Amino acid sequence: MPSKFVLFSYWRSSCSWRIRALLEYKRIPYEYRAINLLNGEQFSPEFLRINPLGLVPALQFQTEDGRTEIISESMAIVDYLEHIVPEPSIFPKDPIERAKVIAVAEAIVSGIQPVQNLGVMKLVEQMTGSKEKSLEWSNKWIAMKFKRLELMLKSTAGKYCFGDRLTLADICLVPQIANAIRYRVDLDEFPLLKQLNETLLSCECFQKSRPENQPDQTLT
């Protein structure tokens, strides 16, 4: 079993929250190292040696034979953690149900979240000449995608996104709803997503991994 896990994270990063929640769910001990995205620490020479993409999260660990390895990109980290600690699993055993879980996760991580990346938001602000317009753009994009996500989950949701067992879809949904709230999306328009979020936030793995419970949460 690999050891000495170190998560490079930023408290408000939704991609990092996915990994924090998963580490808590699988009860994998880790050290938290904050990377201040607001002052550009992600582009420092020191961090670029860790992740040349200049993004969080990045997970560093020591292999069983003593090598230090680093994995970047949240979905790659998810895949690795699922392989080394298969239980509790965040995937159904049935291959069709597993594919459906991945489809929901991809709808969030590929189709919704990227437009709220700090770099994207700054670019939109520069192009429009208005921070308010960039916020409005994100608001409309999230709301449009949430309508479709709500439809996707109507046939699968129970206590969680897929029945009563936590899956990757839940790991991705909660941080995205936090983004939606930040960008003033009216969750009352999406009652299913709102209910799922309220239920999921009561889970220990999400409680411990919440942004406001991170050591760098004062960095705004």
From TrEMBL:
GO terms for cellular component: cytoplasm. Keywords: Isomerase, Phenylalanine catabolism, Tyrosine catabolism. Pathway: Amino-acid degradation; L-phenylalanine degradation; acetoacetate and fumarate from L-phenylalanine: step 5/6. Gene3D superfamilies: 1.20.1050.10, Glutaredoxin. GO terms for biological process: glutathione metabolic process; L-phenylalanine catabolic process; L-tyrosine catabolic process. Pfam families: GST_C_3, GST_N_2. PROSITE patterns: GST_CTER, GST_NTER. Its cofactor is glutathione. It catalyses: 4-maleylacetoacetate = 4-fumarylacetoacetate. One of its GO terms (molecular function) is glutathione transferase activity. InterPro entries: Glutathione-S-Trfase_C-like (IPR010987), Glutathione-S-Trfase_C_sf (IPR036282), Glutathione_S-Trfase (IPR040079), Glutathione_S-Trfase_N (IPR004045), GST_C (IPR004046), GST_Zeta (IPR005955), GST_Zeta_C (IPR034330), GST_Zeta_N (IPR034333). PANTHER family: MALEYLACETOACETATE ISOMERASE. Belongs to the GST superfamily. Zeta family. This is maleylacetoacetate isomerase.
